[in-house]
Amino acid sequence: MWYLRNMPIRRKLTLLTVTISTVSLLLASIAFITSDRISIQQTVSDSHRTLADIIAANSSAALLFSDPVAAQETLDFLKTQQHIQAAVIYSMNDKVFARYIKPGIKPELPPVELQNENILFWGDYVESFTRITYEGEQIGTVYLRSDMNMIHDRLIRLLVIVAIVFAVSLLVSFALGAQLQRVITGPLLRLSAIARLVSTEKNYSVRVIGKGSDELGNLITDFNTMLDEIQLRDSELRDHRLKLEERVARRTRELEKVNAQLEISKQEAESVASAMEYHAHHDALTGLPNRVLLYDRISSELAHARRQQSNAALLFLDLDRFKIINDSLGHAVGDQLLRIIARRLTDCVREEDTVARLGGDEFMVLLPRISGSADAGRIAKKINDSLVDPIACNGHELHITTSIGISIFPYDGTDAETLIKHADISMYRAKELGRNKAIYYTAEMNAGSRKQLAMETNLRKALERNQLSLFYQPKVDINSNRIVGFEALLRWKHPTMGFINPLDFVPVAEISGLIVPIGEWVLNTAFRQLKQWHKAGFTGLTISINLSSAQLSRPGFEDVLEQALLESGLDATAAEVEITENMAMENIDTAVSVLERLKYIGVRIAMDDFGTGYSSLNYLRRLPVDTVKIDKSFVREIPDSPDDVTIVQTIIAMAQNLKLSLIVEGIENVRQLNFFRQLGVNIVQGYLFSKPVEAAEILKMLESQSSADTINLVK
Amino acid sequence: MTTPVDMSRLHVPPRIAGCLLVVLLLSAPALVLPAEVQTIEYRVKTAFLYNFSRFVTWPEAALQGRTEFVLCVIGTDPFGEQLDKLAGKTVHNHPLAVRRPGSLAMLDDCQLVYIGENAALAEILLLLGEKPVLTISEAADFTEQGGIIQFTLARNKVRFKINVVAASTAGLSISSKLLSLAISVTEGD
How far apart are CA A117 and CA A128, in angstroms? Predict the structure, then answer.
């Protein structure tokens, strides 16, 4: 089968032709010979029957009249029949009655028993038995035996003829097949030659010549079409390659140029790398280790401390009020200040200690291998003391302090993260306790932050369960003694803990982000409430809402407020927002844009707690403030405290000069009222008139005021 | 042609019988016992009578309307009961009947007449003359006297002579096959 598969097609086709003709010839020959054989046998048996009939007819009388001599005579004619070798007539008692044997032959005669009538073909002779009857009665049997050699000769002659015809036919079919196969292999050979030419010489311009619409014709047409396609692609490809080579050459030249330059700057690069290595681990401004290097050192020192069972301390430093200096004197001054402080901090510590700047005004000091927590306290004190001397900076004499939180390994934590967190917490505690202090971390501080978390959870529930409510404190015109507006104040009544101080929960709300939904709730509730009172006939009243810094710095807050106004149907001019200096300072740019937008739509802006912060005129000038609200801390000792009197007089003068409205809060007695009345203040609020009360109380007040035309003092 | 001897029918003492058997067997072809030969001869002749009737053709009128083909023996009957065995065989589509008429007048009904010894041969031949009756006899010169078939013996074999003229006078035609077997045939000029 392998041989056949690899045989050339022309041989396959020839083989096919020859095989088919051989098979057909063989079959034809077999049929022919078989038919001839059958017809010969037929002829022979016919001849036997005829001869036997003649003998029977001629010998019947002889048999009947027991005349063998006469019977013998009837056999004489057989001499003329060349192929008859013997003939025997048997009488009915199985006796040989007469017989004829061809001269020169001694055939074996059959046994004397009477044979049935039949004819038998043996190898080289045929014998037959035929009954002799007379008038339907058997009177004997004739046996005939004839020679088959003559017939064999005839068969051999036939075979020779068949073989000759066979051979001639094979030759003819081979010759015809060899010629006819070219009809198929010719186009294939041309196709194959062209394909080889294409693949070896990459010559795509050649084509196969061939016509016809049979499968081969189609194949040639398709092949040529394919070559057209390839030729087209090839030329396109060559163009592309040329362009590409050109481009590569150009690039190579450029690269060589660049390479040369690179060689030159290699040394530079190495120095840059080491510089980058340094920058990755150091603060660019102060040159101190940065957070990355610090954490690295903390890890390795803690590992060391663990092995040696020694102590280590972390000091978390945050400069007090640095932001104000930075904002008011500019970044250049701030930066210089930070560099000087960094130098002073470094001077306060040992060689093996690490002072790092975490960013902004935050620093961290790592004190490894200390003998006890007291060592850390001493270093912290030293740091605080080192900043007592004013710092000369760009012609400014700057006073700066720092709050320090201390955590000790292993008491306050055994890993870097915990120690840093705890130092951070105690630093905030130091700030709370009045700044310029160093505080050790205690477990209670952490409990404090857990308390904060519980507060946050409760606050979230409070918002969902409507535990929040608004109280309103009236603002009173002291000339007419009539209520002109209210300050809305948030109250949280916890079901078990009672009223919770806003100072406790508002910072938590700011940190957790809950201030956003709470703030919205406040706006909606207050605006709706005021609108109700307006509808009840008490027109002209205003409402003030305290904003938190989170609200103010949140983009889109102005839209929230506008939406609340729209929903309540309240006129924007009846609304006022109160902000603090500190809030505005945290993100002055956003604050300015939000407040300007609010002012544009008609909302009034009040500066709350004025005088407690930095009271920077700079801020007052930049913010679109309508009203200044004097904080109650200045009011409390009026008119007994000369300092407070001076401050209040200054503020009032400033406000009047800047054409700002004034309001004073915390008026608790008539002396205070008279004092401010003399200074020209018109609007006040305080316990003297009313503490913050629920909306229902306010309605009563308004109703009684309209009937009495004056406000009843509640307290 | 020899016929086996039925030993049981011979009342011979066993010893002598054994010797006789040996003699018989050793000399079988040559041995001819007169009584036996006669029996065989007439058995053959009986068969010949029947066969003759099959090779001879009677005029249609002779057999038409008849129910039997009648074979008659007149004079001394040499066949005995052998001949009666032919009765019932078919000859020219007629059942064969054997009769032994006592008078010549009864010969008119016969199609084949065997004339034995002690018969008035000349008278019978005269009587039958041109009638379609096949006449057969073993009498010497039978054919010369006008008989149709005459038995003879040649080398101990039964043969026959035929007078074709007599046959044609009687209106009978004889098959050429039969004629070819006859040892002599009397023909007219």
Answer: 7
Give me the phi and psi of A170, to 5 degrees please: -60, -45
Centre a 10 Å sphere on the Cβ of residue A70 and count the other Cβ atoms it contains: 18
Task: Using alpha carbons, select from A542, A510, A530 the residue that is nearest to residue A695.
Answer: A530
Closest by CA to A532, choosing from A470, A478, A489, is A470
Task: Check whether B170 has a pLDDT greater than 60.
Answer: yes
Say which amino acid occupies A221: T
- E strand segments, A94-231: 96-101, 118-121, 125-134, 137-147
Q: Within A202-310, where are the H helices?
A: 215-281, 291-308
Residues 6 or more apart whose CB falls under 8 angstroms from that of A271 comprise none
Among the partner-chain residues A62, A134, A135, the one whose CB lies closest to the CB of B181 is A62
Tell me if A70 and B54 make a contact (CB, 8 A cut-off).
Answer: no
What ipTM was assigned to the predicted interfaces of this complex?
0.75
How distant is the Cα of A130 from the closest Cα of chain B, in angstroms?
20
Cβ of A134 and B177 within 8 Å? no
Q: Residue A615: what are its φ and ψ, rounded to 5°?
A: 45, 45
Chain B residues touching residue A94 (CB < 8 angstroms): none
Residue B36 has a pLDDT of 66
Q: How far B178 CA lies from chain A's nearest CA (Å)?
A: 7
How far B15 CA lies from chain A's nearest CA (Å)? 33
Find the closest chain A residue to B50 by CA distance. A64
Which pLDDT score is estimated for B100? 92
Distances (CA, A) of A604 to A185, A477, A558: 103, 17, 13
pTM of the model: 0.40
* Residue B60: C-alpha distances to residues B33, B107, B114, B134 (Å): 45, 19, 22, 14
pLDDT 10s digits, A187-196: 888 888 888 8
The list of chain A residues with pLDDT below 70 reads 1, 111-115, 446-450, 612-616, 707-715
DSSP A693: B
| Cβ <8 Å between A61 and B178 | yes
Tell me the C-alpha distance between A673 and A686, whole Å: 10
Residue A517, preceding peptide bond in cis (omega within 30° of 0): no
Residues of A with CB under 8 A from a CB of B: 58, 60-62, 64-67, 70, 134-135
